[in-house]
Amino acid sequence: MQSRYAPSAPSPRTCSPLGDWLEGMGVTHLTMESTGVYWRPVFNILEEGREVTLVNAQHIRK
Known about the structure:
Elements: H1 12-24, E1 29-33, H2 39-46, E2 51-55, H3 57-60
Parallel strand pairs: 1-2
Helix pairs in contact: 1-2
């Protein structure tokens, strides 16, 4: 499995280009951290054509 860094998507308006970039890179699975309600529009856009897992950082920290 390869990891690549992508610029974060600060608003729903910028998620579409991010989704296009992820598609071009062949990304099929994503993991996102939930932050209040701000993750919802990003999740909705990025889940098209991908498997997106939503995690709570407090539940996965060691």
